[in-house]
Amino acid sequence: MKKILVTGGTVFVSKIVASYFASSKFKDEYQVYVLNRNNHPQVENVILIHSSRENLKNKLEEYKFDVIVDITSYTKNDVKSILDSLGDTKNLVEKYILLSSSAVYPETLPLPFSENNNLGKNIFWNEYGINKIEAEKYLQENFSNYFILRPPYLYGQENNVYRESFVFDCAEQKRMFYIPQDGKMKLQFFYIEDLCKVIENILINNPKEKIFNLGNEECISILDWVKLCYQIVGSDLQLVNVTKEIPQRNYFPFYDYEYYLDVTKQKTILVNTTSLSIGLHKSYDWYKNNKEKVNKKNYFDFIDNIL
Fold first, then answer.
1. Contact call for residues 213 and 262 (beta carbons, < 8 A)
2. What does the alpha-carbon distance between residue 100 and residue 147 come to, in Å, rounded to a whole number?
3. What is the three-class DSSP state of 97?
4. Which residues of 278-293 are buried (b: 16+ CB within 10 A; e: fewer)?
5. Residues in CB range of 25: below 8 A, 6 or more apart
6. Which uninterrupted H or E stretch holds 153?
7. What φ, ψ does residue 177 adopt, rounded to 5°?
8. Which of 45, 193, 206, 253 could form a disulfide with 163 if both were Cys (CB 3.0 to 4.6 A apart)?
9. Which domains are assigned to the chain?
10. Which of 185, 205, 187, 209 is nearest to 266 (CA)?
11. pLDDT, position 246
């Protein structure tokens, strides 16, 4: 059995990834370890390494990992702490997979963003994107068989970010939905289980490409996205178009920023992606019974008192 370390393992992306590889599908192939502070319940069939990155020291060296799936590194020092803690066993690691972000691309680049584009500051993501660039660079300079994944907006069950769940709440409460401008701004999404499949295919096939943009090939307007969420809940949609010069993040869960990624390379390791309709249905089925797990923002107060 190969030993896989998943950083995190208790919240959204890292939790789903850990659960995926610890499931019965892989019971004879992988032994899954998770690295976290043990502040949340652990998923089944994983082995906990209870530590923060700041106190790792050489703690990882004793495990002799075959694969690192690094979901929670946001900075160069985050990656460095993992590699340093592996000590001499770093040479035994076959693959290091880093979850990065589409925030590494400057907003001024022509669309779609390609893996070959120069990276740089994005004014919408600021330090988050810069830190991801530095994390990518450090990994590339210090580990040979690396893989870097750059998704757009991830969604699905266990999503603790108040995005699709906000629209589900509006639909359940039969509220009018306040949408920025004409609703034509487009977004690109990627379903969380498709991310797991990408990682699985990298582990199996060891592709020649090292950096992959991820995402559904088709983008969707924010209007159609909201319509789909209301449809899934089973509510009629009534719209209010907000044309005032108000930052839309005060009442809507995305920046006023349209971009999309070239996912041609992704097709070499994941031919088909989950449709947004299927993915959002699964998201809503999870959310109905787990509303307390989402970090909700006060969009309703702003809408009711300002708009």
1. yes
2. 10
3. strand
4. ebbebbbebbeeeeee
5. none
6. strand 153-155
7. -105, 125
8. 253
9. 2-150 (3.40.50.720), 160-188+216-305 (3.90.25.10)
10. 209
11. 93
Nearest to 277 by CA among 191, 186, 177: 191
* CA distance linking residue 223 with residue 188, whole number of Å: 13
d(C-alpha 240, C-alpha 167), whole Å: 14
Peptide bond into 247 cis (omega under 30): no
Model pLDDT, residue 120: 98
Tally Cβ neighbours within 10 Å of residue 260.
Answer: 19
**Gyration radius of the chain's alpha carbons:** 20
Q: Output the six-digit token pair for 289.
A: 């019974």
> How do residues 263-307 score in pLDDT, each as one tens digit?
999 999 999 999 999 999 999 999 999 999 999 999 999 999 999
Residue ranges in the chain assigned as alpha helix (H)? 12-21, 76-86, 127-142, 164-172, 192-205, 222-233, 276-287, 299-305
Give the strands of the sheet with 30-36, arranged side by side: 46-50, 30-36, 2-7, 67-70, 95-99, 146-150, 211-213
